[in-house]
Design a protein that fits this description.
alpha+beta, nucleotidyltransferase, two-stranded antiparallel sheet
Length: 482
């Protein structure tokens, strides 16, 4: 083999730091973008945020007017003994002659509300009961075994074993039996909320019924229904009528009474906060035209700090000057990346609105099939770029707040040779189910036939898949006989 040296010309695509930054900013949500901007503002002195009520007077003007005298004094050979100050001692430190005098800080009542969880709420009530040390230890182990719904998520044998182990660690020779655990559990089940610590739904409802007054109508019928809990859950009302011997009117009234109870007593203590999404794009109809604009509340206005930019000297190669120059370059690239992000987002959102005008005017049933490739070809962007733009971005429309991904859906063929969106089909299924006769609910085959009459070819298994995605139970579970 002979070695040789030669030249070769080739094209190579590399991701520059500026391009990497633009791609990263493109996929950030509005909240993440706000955090990223704050990080850049804290780290880059050349970057500043434009405030709406900011003064129009530049920093250079303020510098020449207010700091001229101070600069002259600082450049002098000898500094004066007493420099001018703008704060008095008493403005910061208050006088306090004796320990009995008025306190420096005013004592105020703490009005903050502390939201207790389920376990903390139960333990507060346990501490008020006249329990012995061992019973209180059992109660703590029971409360520790509660799940988010308020049910007991452990077997009695496991709780018994945990209590005995704790007693051994405490060097206590006593041994707890299962009957003692059951007694403490009964006490906890009648605390607020009543039914907490139940081992299943039937026991929870039974305890709540026992807590009602005996004169409540149909309470005995409701208790008899809980004996056939499996038939009640499966909605097999015909067998319930035979097994309980109740009339249809009694059965209906007993079921209505059970519906007034709390099936999951612990859910009211759920501390999950509601998530509020801020729209990135706002769509409104003006003069019979749909207008798309970016939300001004999430559009940060950034600029270069004129004070520091004026300090940069072109021929100076000192460390300070090089630092300022690099920071200015980073600030300009960051502002450019933010601007490109907004332009791309507005371009993609406008394209989506043009395709989904029927949805904005008529609703989800008029949704048109749309995929990422269609938008990418129209706006002349790569499909991955469109995917980044539509992730965690929200559009506010007259019909509600939707993620941009919501407007993309697969298609199903129609009898006329056209296409129907899967989102539109789901909306049609939901409408058909909401208008059905509860005594004769529509089966999946019936829904498929009704859609076929509308010109949409959908198989039964497809209808079942869409129905399950809408969290709609099957026809047998939706059937109501009384």
């Amino acid at each position: 083999m002979k070695l040789s040296v030669g030249l070769k010309v080739a094209n190579n695509l590399s991701l520059t730091p500026q391009l990497q930054q633009a791609i990263r900013l493109l996929q950030l949500s509005s909240l993440e973008l706000e955090q990223e901007i704050q990080i850049q503002l804290d780290s880059n002195p050349l970057l500043e945020k434009v405030e709406e009520n900011s003064s129009t007077e530049s920093l250079s003007t303020l510098e020449s007017q207010e700091t001229g005298d101070l600069t002259t004094e600082l450049n002098a050979d000898h500094l004066p003994n007493d420099l001018p100050v703008d704060t008095e001692w008493d403005d910061i430190y208050t006088h306090q002659s004796t320990a009995l005098a008025t306190p420096e800080y005013e004592e105020r009542e703490d009005n903050r509300q502390v939201h207790l969880g389920l376990k903390e709420h139960i333990l507060e009530q346990v501490n008020l009961l006249h329990f012995s040390l061992i019973d209180k230890l059992i109660a703590y182990c029971i409360v520790d075994s509660l799940d988010d719904k308020g049910f007991l998520d452990a077997e009695l044998d496991d709780i018994l074993l945990a209590v005995n182990r704790l007693l051994q660690e405490m060097e206590n020779d006593e041994e707890v039996e299962e009957d003692e655990v059951i007694v403490v559990l009964k006490h906890i089940q009648h605390l607020d909320p009543i039914g907490v610590g139940s081992r299943n739904l039937a026991e929870c409802l039974k305890i709540q019924l026992e807590g009602l007054h005996d004169k409540v109508p149909y309470i005995s019928e409701a208790k008899s229904l809980l004996k056939y809990y499996e038939l009640l859950i499966s909605n097999d009302l015909n067998k319930l009528l035979k097994q309980t011997g109740l009339s249809k009117e009694q059965l209906k009234s007993a079921v209505d009474l059970l519906k007034t109870l709390k099936p999951y007593p612990g859910l009211e203590f759920d501390q999950q906060e509601s998530e509020y999404q801020v729209p990135d794009v706002v769509v409104a109809k003006k003069d019979q035209h749909w207008q798309v604009q970016l939300n001004p509340d999430v559009m940060p206005k950034l600029r270069i700090n004129s004070f520091y930019s004026n300090m940069i000297r072109r021929a100076d190669q000192s460390d300070d000057n090089v630092y300022l120059r690099n920071q200015m370059l980073e600030a300009k690239n960051f502002i450019k990346s933010i601007d490109e992000r907004h332009k791309t987002l507005l371009k993609v959102a406008t394209c989506i609105v043009e395709h989904q005008r029927a949805f904005l005017e008529q609703g989800a049933e008029a949704m048109k099939p749309l995929v990422l490739r269609d938008v990418a070809e129209e706006v002349e962007l790569h499909e991955s770029t469109v995917s980044r733009v539509t992730t965690n971005k929200y559009m506010l429309t007259p019909r509600g707040l939707f993620e941009l991904k919501y407007f993309f859906s697969s298609h199903v063929g129609t009898t006329t040779g056209g296409e129907a969106s899967s989102t539109a089909i789901r909306a049609m299924i939901k409408k058909l189910v909401s208008n059905e006769n509860p005594r004769k609910p529509l089966s999946d085959n019936t829904i498929a036939e009704m859609l076929k009459n509308e010109g949409i070819e959908v198989a039964r298994r497809t209808v079942a898949k869409y129905r399950e995605s809408l969290h709609i139970p099957s026809s047998s579970e939706r059937k109501v006989l009384i």
